[in-house]
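Minutes, project check-in
Item: structure for the 115-residue chain
Input as provided by the requester:
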Amino acid sequence: MTDLSKVTFRETTPDDAEALRALHTAAFGRDSEAKLVDEANAVRLSMAAELDGQVIAHVLFTPVEIERNGSRKDGVVGLGPMAVHPDHQRQQVGFELLWAALSRLGLEEVPGVIV
């Protein structure tokens, strides 16, 4: 059982690239989502959950362009991919990470998130 009191939530850094790749591959059993993270050229927010120095979950938000009736909505972000290591799934780690990330986006007055 994951002890959530020992999990920290933080923004990722370039040093996390290898750990994120391994996490997404383990969580999904393939490397497609890992490639999405690697190839994201515009990142609005990337956050990790860390336990004992290991990244156990990750969520990525990227800018999304929305245009409706000739009007453009700036600042909206898209969620994904999001991954939790199989050893920590179904233990609220993903929920807590997502809550931390959405709270950060709310403080930055992001007008919307698309899932």
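Outcome recorded: The beta strands are 8-11, 45-51, 54-63, 66-68, 71-73, 77-84, 113-114.
No further action items on this chain.
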